[in-house]
Specification:
With 109 residues, this protein is mainly alpha-helical. Among the domains are: 10-39; 41-83, no CATH class. The protein has helices at 12-38, 42-47, 49-62, 73-81. The radius of gyration is 17 Å and the shape is globular.
Length: 109
């Protein structure tokens, strides 16, 4: 176990018994979302920063942290989707959240 990581109070079996069905449903929802994207204009979808970030996040899900790496999957994905800038905006550029930061807009990707 990585240093500073709090061990789970449940066994692996208990975690699977309690959360498998819930997460199976989430996987099926993600698969359905990706299938719907596949049936649209790929050239438009592939340029959307949210879809690009989503696909990057999916790759992080399957990647186990390297030996000595402190960040968990959730931390790496949160970092991937978050705005890395520190300066406040002069004004909001939209009325709603986008769910991902457009790293490609500023060449941060």
């Amino acid at each position: 176990m990585q240093p500073g990581v709090i061990p789970s109070p449940k066994t692996g079996r208990e975690l699977v018994d309690e959360y498998f069905i819930e997460n199976r449903t989430r996987l099926l929802e993600i698969a359905a979302f990706l299938d719907r994207l596949d049936r649209t204009d790929a050239s438009l979808v592939d340029r959307d920063f949210r879809v690009r970030a989503f696909r990057d996040a999916l790759r992080l899900l399957d990647a186990r942290p390297a030996a000595g790496e402190a960040q968990t999957r959730v931390e790496r994905i949160q970092h991937l989707l978050s705005d890395p800038t520190t300066e406040p905006l002069e004004k909001l550029d939209t009325k709603s959240a986008r769910g991902a930061y457009d790293r490609w807009q500023l060449g941060v990707a």
